[in-house]
Design a protein that fits this description.
526 residues; single chain; 8-stranded parallel barrel; 25% strand; 27 strands; globular; alpha/beta; binds alpha-L-arabinofuranose; disordered N terminus; 6-stranded antiparallel sheet
């Protein structure tokens, strides 16, 4: 009662003094803090590769089996064994490429185990992920069919750790050659006449770790050796991606980049970085957390900006023309598995915090689009920071899914350079910016701005000035939730989803965006 009275007195005083007009938000009835963005469309020249919005599917837990593949005889509606609901959901976010079959699994995978009649395919042990039986019912043909259904490019990760040069060379030939050869005959015998197009091919995965525990010097030799026998057959150009650094291993990037022959052979070099809230032995719960863990997760995710900047700076020394791409083909939140689930399956829930991490990373990749031309969130379904969770016939779209949906407008659009001034978000002695943003102009001439307000307590009033052009129309979408750990579950699948956003207006070319606390907003102006 007393507090309400004080609030009214304060409100009336402020209004009478004409100091400001408080905006009241449904999400948090607090006066927003102010910030500004300057957009420079006249300086826009770099394309945001659609491949930044790529995904990763590994033979791990229920990513492939159950998440994608249910088999032709399943009561779950499917096309050639692949779930229809999942395909539809992924088509709706326009996934541009899909990496497969791993991850660590890739360097144990022998592709010939996964072709031919299913009852003749050998079962193997998935030594990396739970020691479960892998029956190889999802193999090369099934993966390429999945890519066809999704309308995305295939990104195959070859086995350098335990495979041979011949095996990798033959896989390329099996997939992409139209010549008459033992491998193409085998493919035809397995029911596929025409070669497929395979755009991206990784030569090993995490070769500093599960892919063989190599030094960069040794891997560099292997990269060149394997690459020499991976041919471009008519109609196909393989973009070879070298296995790259983990996190701050700048020496790895330097060693790979300084070799002229390696540079000549690679289209890209990878970087892996996961957001670990605490440390590898205690990663924290995906859903049970407070503001401290929320803040720490976002603060640690901001590290991606430093990582791509520093790895790019090394690449700039040897490749100033920026021909070679930095490929962040594993990124995302990694928390403890959901209680009661197999620790080897890496199954975690996905909350508004994960949506923030996705929005932040995608903004970072967009803003570094001159060098980062591919990124793959880990992983697509049922593993780590997934966009989709499945349980038998049920499917849930996660908050991260909605971020990819909001951000798809940036795919192949032109990055608009910008300058952001915003409030700090402070926790104890740590400080981060409260806002992350990126902007682009699409082929139809529309400008898109995506913003995340990390602060769970304060709204941000952002004034955006555009240095060129005339703008009069604005529309938008918002993703937010009542609590920071809200998530979509199999019982309540629609707790968090995007809704139209009415908090933006444009007048005399000045765009004002009221970004509520803990929300992600996508704005379109023209
Ligand atoms: O995404 C899970 C695992 O994380 C991948 O298999 C591996 O490459 C990385 O260490």
């Amino acid at each position: 009662m007393k507090t309400s009275f004080l609030k009214i007195v304060l409100f009336v005083s402020v209004m009478l003094l004409g100091l400001s007009t408080p905006t009241v938000y449904a999400q948090n009835a607090k006066t927003p803090v102010k910030g500004s963005i300057s957009l420079f469309p006249d300086q826009a020249k770099v394309t945001i590769s659609k491949d930044i919005y790529g995904h990763f599917s590994e033979h791990l837990g229920a990513c492939i089996y159950g998440g994608i593949w249910v088999g032709e005889k399943s009561p779950i509606p499917n096309t050639d064994g692949i779930r229809n609901d999942v395909v539809k959901a992924l088509r709706d976010i326009s996934i541009p490429n899909l990496r497969w079959p791993g991850g660590c699994f890739a360097d144990t995978y022998h592709w010939k185990d996964g072709i031919g009649p299913k009852d003749k395919r050998p079962s193997i042990i998935n030594t990396n992920w739970g020691g479960v039986t892998e029956d190889n019912s999802f193999g090369t043909h099934e993966f390429m069919r999945l890519c066809e259904l999704l309308g995305c490019d295939a990104y195959i990760n070859g086995n350098i750790g335990s495979g041979t040069v011949q095996e990798m060379s033959e896989w390329v030939e099996y997939l992409t050659s139209s010549n008459d050869s033992p491998m193409t005959k085998l493919r035809k015998a397995n029911g596929r006449d025409k070669p497929w197009v395979v755009k991206y091919w990784a030569v090993g995965n995490e070769t500093w770790g599960c892919g063989g525990n190599m030094t960069p010097e040794y891997y560099g030799d292997l990269f060149r050796q394997f690459s020499s026998f991976m041919h471009d057959f008519a109609g196909n150009t393989l973009n070879k991606i070298a296995s790259g650094a983990s996190d701050v291993d700048y020496n790895w990037t330097e060693t790979m980049m300084k070799n002229p022959k390696s540079r000549q052979m690679m289209a890209g070099i990878s970087l892996h970085n996961y957001t670990i809230m605490d440390n590898w032995s205690h990663k924290g719960s995906a859903t049970q957390f407070g503001e401290k863990e929320w803040f720490t997760t976002i603060r640690k995710s901001l590290m991606m900006d430093e990582l791509v900047s520093k790895h790019s700076a090394i690449m700039d020394k040897y490749d100033p023309q920026k021909r070679i791409s930095l490929v962040v083909d594993e990124w995302g939140d990694w928390f403890d598995v959901e209680p009661g689930t197999n620790p080897g399956f890496l199954f975690q829930q996905n909350t508004m915090r994960d949506a923030m991490v996705a929005a932040l990373n995608l903004n970072i990749f967009n803003n570094h689009a001159d060098r980062v031309r591919m990124a793959n969130i880990a992983q697509m379904i049922n593993v780590l920071q997934s966009v989709i969770l499945t349980k038998n016939e049920k499917m849930v779209l996660t908050p991260t899914y909605y971020v990819f949906k909001m951000y798809k407008v940036h795919q192949d659009a032109t990055l608009i350079p910008l300058k952001l001034n915003c409030e700090k978000y402070i926790m104890g002695t740590d400080t981060i910016p409260s806002v992350s943003v990126s902007a682009s102009k699409d082929k139809a001439g529309k400008t898109h701005i995506t913003l995340a307000n990390f602060d769970p307590n304060k709204a941000q009033e952002i004034t955006c000035t555009v240095s060129a052009g005339t703008y009069s129309q604005v529309k938008g979408e918002i993703l937010t939730a009542a609590s920071i750990n809200a998530c979509n579950t199999f019982d309540k699948p629609n707790e968090i989803k995007t809704v139209p956003f009415s908090g933006a207006s444009i007048k005399n070319n000045i765009l004002t965006i009221n970004v509520p606390s803990k929300s992600i907003v996508a704005i379109e102006i023209n």
